[in-house]
């Protein structure tokens, strides 16, 4: 069953690649021939792609073309890439200011997705990687971005993702999390005091766009041997200031 599902996904992606090279569209028979599958199989795959908006059908010619959903996805990727280019010099400034590793991340359905990272020059570095995901409730970046979102979204995160305990200091109740988010909203920055990983502290702040919506966050993170609780609180305002400058660049 799994292999059949994988094959269906591969064939669906192949259809998108075929249509990419035929902007005027193709009919079911032409697509099935190029895909080397039965016409009924091609029709079933096209129907699924049509339902999700990845292809569109011209009712006059019965030809299928790429759909607007792909444009929307492309725009999201482009925005992330533009954000990375814009934020890079600011991340470098944070590294110079603090001597620690800096991250740029976006929020997606209760999780933090790291999209850029600039390393500290220190010998001991924290492990993180572009493309990795982390829970929002126990990371500085996650709490910074959640602090700018409505309560309904926070409740949705709690309901769908839960508040998993990773360390002794992880916030595992709604009350604890809401209190931390209120403080982050007041201050303009949030902390992760060994809540996701033992031995790692982090200060993070949200980035807003021209619609005054949270679109990303930046952080400074490092080992507790270098970042004491007092130093973490000193770094917080620095991260917040840089995040505000990026937000202004984004039209905030």
UniProtKB/TrEMBL annotation:
InterPro entries in the record: GAF-like_dom_sf (IPR029016), HTH_MetabolicPath_Reg (IPR050707), Tscrpt_reg_IclR_C (IPR014757), Tscrpt_reg_IclR_N (IPR005471), WH-like_DNA-bd_sf (IPR036388), WH_DNA-bd_sf (IPR036390)
PANTHER family in the cross-refs: HELIX-TURN-HELIX TRANSCRIPTIONAL REGULATOR, ICLR FAMILY (PTHR30136), HTH-TYPE TRANSCRIPTIONAL REPRESSOR ALLR (PTHR30136:SF24)
Keyword Cell wall biogenesis/degradation found: no
Residue stretches making up the HTH iclR-type domain: 6-68
Source organism (scientific name): Paenibacillus plantiphilus
Protein name: HTH-type transcriptional regulator XynR
Domain IclR-ED: 69-252
Keyword Signal: no
Keywords attached to this entry: DNA-binding, Transcription, Transcription regulation
Gene name tied to this protein: xynR
Highest taxon, organism lineage: Bacteria
């Amino acid at each position: 069953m799994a292999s059949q599902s994988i094959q269906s996904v591969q064939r669906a992606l192949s259809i998108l690649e075929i249509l990419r090279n035929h902007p005027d569209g193709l009919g079911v028979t032409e697509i099935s021939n190029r895909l080397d599958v039965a016409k009924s199989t091609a029709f079933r795959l096209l129907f699924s792609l049509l339902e999700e908006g990845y292809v569109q059908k011209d009712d006059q010619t019965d030809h299928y073309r790429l759909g607007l959903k792909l444009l929307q996805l492309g725009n999201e990727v482009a925005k992330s890439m533009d954000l990375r280019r814009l934020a890079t010099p600011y991340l470098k400034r944070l590294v110079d200011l603090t001597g620690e590793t800096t991250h740029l991340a976006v929020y997606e359905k209760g999780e933090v997705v790291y999209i850029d990272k600039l390393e500290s020059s220190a010998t001991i570095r924290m492990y993180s990687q572009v493309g990795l995901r982390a829970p929002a409730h126990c990371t500085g970046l996650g709490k910074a971005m959640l602090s700018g979102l409505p309560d309904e979204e926070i409740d949705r995160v709690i309901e769908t993702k839960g508040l998993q305990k990773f360390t002794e200091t992880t916030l595992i109740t709604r009350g604890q999390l809401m209190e931390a988010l209120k403080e982050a909203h007041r201050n303009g920055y949030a902390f992760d005091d060994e809540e996701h990983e033992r031995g790692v502290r982090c200060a993070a702040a949200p980035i807003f766009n021209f619609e005054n919506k949270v679109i990303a966050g930046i952080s400074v993170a490092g080992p507790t041997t270098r970042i004491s609780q007092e130093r973490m609180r000193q770094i917080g305002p620095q991260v917040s200031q840089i995040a505000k400058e990026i937000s202004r660049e984004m039209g905030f």
